[in-house]
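User
New here, help please:
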Amino acid sequence: MSTRNIKLVNFITEPIRDKPVTELPGIGVTLGYKLTDAGFGRASSVLGQFLLFDMDKEYFCDWMFEICQANTRQANECWHCLLKWCDAFL
């Protein structure tokens, strides 16, 4: 299983609680720093934005690009993870 898949499985199998933003698939140290600097240091904060955008992939991915310069792959991985997490917990 690839590292990306492991990160996804680990994230969606438990509540968010106080997980740092870097635990989201697609978010590494650099993007994590940029998100934290913009006030989104916790995965729950990013989840809040995801829900504000009604889980819309285009809006969310555009926001990720604007807020932390995430590329398409990174933003899509993060969106997919949050969608799967919502399926499991909401």
Observations:
- Residues 72-89 form the longest helix (18 residues).
